[in-house]
């Protein structure tokens, strides 16, 4: 089974996992570690190591972070050098996380899930200018 650890700045991770549970139901393989103003890189690193140790029987562990090159990302990347079971996904958002968990829940092969999730969620954000509003409303509704 794949275990997923969500780590981000502030309460990104607990908010994301809360929203995921609301939409998909409780996910038994998803865990979060808050990195808030009371924390430090050293505390976060200790929490990450302890959680990874809990999953010694997991075949894969995915660390899902919010920002490229943020502290959670950097610590995760460093840990990957000493643990071959770790994978790292960054730039995470709710749409991406739902897609990822749905694919893993369906038993899709691990090797395909990460790249497919990135590809499938490339267009989940967008922008509609006010001038496009009337045309968009007519086309979609």
List strands and helices in order, with pairings:
Blueprint: E1 2-9, H1 12-24, E2 30-35, H2 41-54, E3 60-65, H3 71-80, E4 86-89, H4 94-105, H5 110-120, H6 133-140
Parallel strand pairs: 1-2, 1-3, 3-4
| Mean pLDDT figure | 90
Helical percent range?
Answer: 40-55%
Could you spell the SSE succession in H and E letters? EHEHEHEHHH
Structural class: alpha/beta
Radius of gyration, whole Å: 17 Å
Distance between the termini: 42 Å
Strand content: 15-25%
The main pleated sheet reads as: 4 strands, parallel
Outline:
This protein is of the alpha/beta class and 141 residues long. It has six helices and four strands; from the N terminus they run E-H-E-H-E-H-E-H-H-H.
Explain the overall architecture.
There is one protein chain. This protein has a four-stranded parallel β-sheet with strand order 2-1-3-4, sandwiched between helices. Strand 3, helix 3 and strand 4 form a beta-alpha-beta unit. Helices cover 48% and strands 17% of the residues. The model has no long low-confidence stretch (mean pLDDT 90). The longest helix is centred in the middle third of the chain and has 14 residues, at 41-54. The protein is an alpha/beta fold and 141 residues long.
């Amino acid at each position: 089974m794949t275990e997923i650890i969500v780590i981000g700045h502030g309460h990104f991770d607990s908010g994301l996992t809360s929203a995921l549970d609301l939409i998909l139901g409780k996910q038994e393989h998803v865990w979060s570690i808050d990195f808030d103003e009371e924390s430090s890189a050293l505390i976060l690193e200790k929490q990450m190591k302890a959680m990874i140790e809990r999953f010694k029987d997991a075949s894969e562990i995915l660390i899902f972070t919010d920002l490229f090159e943020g502290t959670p990302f950097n610590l995760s990347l460093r840990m990957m050098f000493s643990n071959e079971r770790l994978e790292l996904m960054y730039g995470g958002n709710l749409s991406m996380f739902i897609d990822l968990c749905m694919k893993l829940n369906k038993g899709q092969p691990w090797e395909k899930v990460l790249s497919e999730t990135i590809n499938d969620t490339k267009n989940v954000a967008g922008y509609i200018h006010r001038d496009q509003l009337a045309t968009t409303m007519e086309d979609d509704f």
